[in-house]
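Hi there, hope your week has been kind to you so far. No rush at all, and the record is pasted right below.
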Amino acid sequence: MARVKNLAVWTLGAAWIIGAACAASPAQTPAAAIAPGAMPRVGTVDERFQSYNIEAVEVTGGRFWKPYASVSTSHADAQPAANTPPGMNPSLYEYRQPIDLSNPRLRKLAAALGPAYVRVSGTWMNSTYFQDSDDPAPMKPPAGFNSVLTRKQWKGVIDFAHAANARIVTSFAMSTGTRDAAGVWTPKVAQAWMAFTKSVRGSIAAAEFMNEPTFAEIGGAPKGYDAQAYARDFTVFQAWAKANVPEMRVLGPGGVGEGTPLAPPFMHLLTSEGILNATGPVFDVFSYHSYGAVSSRCAAMGTAMGTSKEAALADDWLSRGASAEAFYAALRDRFEPGKPIWNSETGQAACGGDRWASTFLDTFRYLNQLGSLARLGVQVQMHNTLDASDYGLLDEKTLEPRPDYWAALLWRRLMGATVLDPGPSPSANLHLYAHCLRNQPGGVALLAINADKDAEQTLQLPLSAERYTLTAANLTDSTADLNGKPLELGPGDALPVLRGVAVHSETVSLAPASITFLAFPRAGNASCK
């Protein structure tokens, strides 16, 4: 998709909870005129555009961000770990047993979002040793590693991906245990891992060499690791990958902490620009990670890097995904012109998400970012995480869907891969995005979010549509309603029927702080046929 230059943050509008249309009052903002049949094509996104992460630490077992609801204060949880960033309180982390990827509820809910990519990576993967035997993991990892991934655990990932209609994305270990006497990366561990993957009918769709090289030392790289060291190691990695996993697309550089203020002074930042200068144009896909802020867990990094629930509907907050994309897309255009761009890790806030990341309040950001990045030309966005900590789409203890999951499910059901231009919005709080309607030739789907907590917005529809409106009694509820009815799993974890409410060609009122998808199956849009 061609990149759209100087994109203003496009507003989303949301329809009223009851689904009834009503005339706009004179005091309201003028209605946005919607013309589904005439919306021009902007470009396309990957069929697996909306994807998700399962942290490597979930697969191996280990310490990850402790949910705010957790009351665990055990001595074991409070112990420092090798992967704890400097200046961070180790009590913010909590030990997790390896995740059960065969769990029927987990598989069913993940499959409903498919096709997708499942990225199994994170800082933990940088220092994970693959044990190429059927023996249990040792109590202590080999020298130079912090964790062990067993054959059984990795086979579980492969089986999960097959069951969930997901293709695997990952990264490779690059800690001191992977290096030769001269300190150069070697593919010994990677070779054993990929050979086993192929032996059990697995495949890797894409991978970054390492997770987040902009924070290389925090991530497990040798002390003093710089752009030249990365380029040296990547040369070895690239040659090995082409010879042994030629079907794997190489993503990179996968930087984070740039374009938004996420790098405190005490953390050494290895810039993406420096890496790209050292490597040259070597990546199949340009990848980056982005968070609009750090959570309150990481307040030690500085209050300027945090956010608050009071700001969650403000344009400054909703536009941060597009701001980060602009920074990294400019680097892509300079160093890797024409390459696809993927946002391979993102979420409400770094460090596990804020307390309200699990509530309806974050759904505005979640969908706004999907809409804006699709329009900007990002091909894939991977949400962190599927089920861990407060920014997970699912509650990690119960696997109950959170509001962001229901939003993701509606996106999956309605928003196709062809991106359209819905036209301008008359209000700064009404953000509009449009795609071709999934599996409906000529049809159009409009996403509208009313980010105004106090005022209604209106849409003028030229033809009938089906409306799907998400609301919550309170913005910080951990549940959501669809057209006024609670969204919840049924017997046997059956997903609810996502049924729209018919609206006709007229002015439709959109309630304050609500989100609406409108499906126009008979739009007759030539770009969608």
